[in-house]
Amino acid sequence: MKPFIGMPSDSDPKIHGFTDYIDDNVAQAIIKAGGVPVILPPNNSEEIAKDYVKNLDGIAFLGGPDIDPTLFGEEPIAKIGSTSLIKDKFEIALCRQAYQAGKAIFGICRGIQIISVALGGTVFQDFPSQSEDAFIKHHQDAPIFYPSHHITTEAGTKAETILGDHPYVNSHHHQTVKEPGTELFVSGRAADHAVEVVESKKNDQVLAVQWHPEFLFDTKPEEMELFRDFVERSKKSY
């Protein structure tokens, strides 16, 4: 049986309320990898998060707005972008429930950040201005389906196994993980030390990346392998 993969949606305000959506590229990558994508609208109920986790095999946390810094003990700085507190709280609850239930977890861009915050970590609200090491252009002007900079993965990690030691990735962010929390470790960084990949310490339950493999999987086999790995992980419990 194909695993069912939950994907929290973004929401745009409209005249009659909110329109929930995801980027179709992610759904298509999951389908191609053998999974069944399911869109999860944000809400204020932790009970619904529990129900989702109970009925799904894996959760993919996707790109989207900045994360409200009050959720990791900071006040917003001038360079922070738009945030959605309801979305943040829902995804944090969903991630914690999924982690505790032993479900497979995958993160893309904002997803790597929300997973880290949910599991006790912190985020640079604006990496270019808050890190003295920052020098790479992490918000590329080139089309997103082109890679724009390299990262280096740690030897012996799942990241290295899937991506190789020096993968070429795209980049569309200004926030990035500062501290990944006690359950995760950093397995890939950019040349300016920006966190690009995190994994779970105890097993292979969690894998999250800072770039957007959903725009590269048609041209770069290793990016498709991220989705295949996630779907395979979703078939087992941790």
Automatic annotation (TrEMBL):
Claim: Repeat is one of the keywords in the record: no
Keyword tags: Glutamine amidotransferase, Transferase
GO BP, one annotated term: polyamine catabolic process
A GO CC term assigned to this protein in UniProt: cytosol
Lineage: Bacteria, Bacillati, Bacillota, Bacilli, Lactobacillales
Highest rank taxon of the organism: Bacteria
InterPro entries, A to Z: Class_I_gatase-like, Peptidase_C26, PuuD-like
Gene Ontology molecular function terms on file: gamma-glutamyl-gamma-aminobutyrate hydrolase activity; transferase activity
UniProt protein name: Glutamine amidotransferase
Keyword Electron transport in record: no
